Amino acid sequence: MNPRTPLAIAAAAIAAAVTLAAGTAQAAIVYQQAPAAAPSTGWTSQVGIGQGGYQTFDDFTVATAATVDRVSWRGTYLTADAGGLHGAAPNTGAWTVEFWSGNAAGPLTQLYSQDYSVDLVTRTGVGTSPFGGSTIDVYDFSLDLALDFDVVAGQQYWFSVISKSGSFSPFFSWTNADGPGNAYQLMYDGSGRVLANFVRGGDRAFTLEAATVPEPTSLALLAGALLAGGLASKRRKAA
Q1: Residue (of 177, 174, 74) closest to 121 by Cα position
Q2: CA 1 to chain centroid
Q3: What's the half-sphere exposure (Cβ side, CA atoms, 13 Å) at 156?
Q4: pTM score, two decimals?
């Protein structure tokens, strides 16, 4: 069997590198409202099955069109008792992720709504914080969307996450970001009818991401560099 020539080895390396690069996606942040250092507000975004509840939204606009395939948000779980708010263990059974179009007054038209099992959402404890007269646990949540969502530059959108559970005690509270904006909230009855709506103070903490792959030009440059290296090696051996 003839040994492989340097050129053949370079060609194999090119194929492997291009295949690897083409299949490797890197996350790019499409939009972010970074969490505040410590929660100062939290708006309920939880629906108890058959009990009604609240849905909280926050708006965003992007400068460049993108395909969102990953979302993350920050929040806590609270009980309301003894005249105050107290931290509690998570009780989410499923999450609903939604995108709406709208304007400065609030969300108007639902564009995307998907339910996700709690097993598909990564929950990470990020510490504790004083809140409402007690100490609460704070969590980051992240999810790879099963169905991506395309956002258009310059259009105002509203993003929402809803915790669904068999009980409204405790309830999920979406904590604030570093920003002066407002959130929006709907209140539902046990049949899912909207009973009231509210403008709520403070941006909510969330991040939208999109997968990016190397551009064809970058792949061509990589292939060219590997090929040039292989040819140079061949010339050295022939000299």
Answers
A1: 74
A2: 53
A3: 11
A4: 0.80
Beta-carbon count within 10 A of 22 CB:
12
d(CA 71, CA 27): 11
Preceding peptide of 90 cis, ω within 30°: no
Cβ atoms within 10 Å, residue 199: 11
**Positions of the chain with pLDDT under 50:** 1-3, 7-23, 217-223, 225-228, 230-237
What is the DSSP code string of 134-199?
Answer: EEEEEEEEEEEEEEEEEE-TT--EEEEEEEEES-SSSEEEEEBBSSS-EEEEEEE-TTS-EEEEEE
Burial (CB < 10 A; 0-12, 13-18, 19+), residue 233, is middle
46-48 and 26-33 beta bridge pairing: unpaired
Distance CA 184, CA 43 (A): 9
Contact 183, 102 (CB under 8 A): no
When computed from its CA atoms, the radius of gyration of the chain, rounded to whole angstroms, is 24
Helix H or strand E encompassing 81 = strand 66-81
Q: Which of 99, 143, 100, 138 is nearest to 118 (CA)?
A: 143
Distance CA 122, CA 84 (A): 29
CB neighbourhood size of 1 (10 A): 3
Q: At what angle do helices 6-23 and 216-238 cross, to 10 degrees?
A: 160
| pLDDT value for 20 | 43
Structure confidence at residue 96 (pLDDT): 98
Domains of the chain, by residue range, sit at 24-229
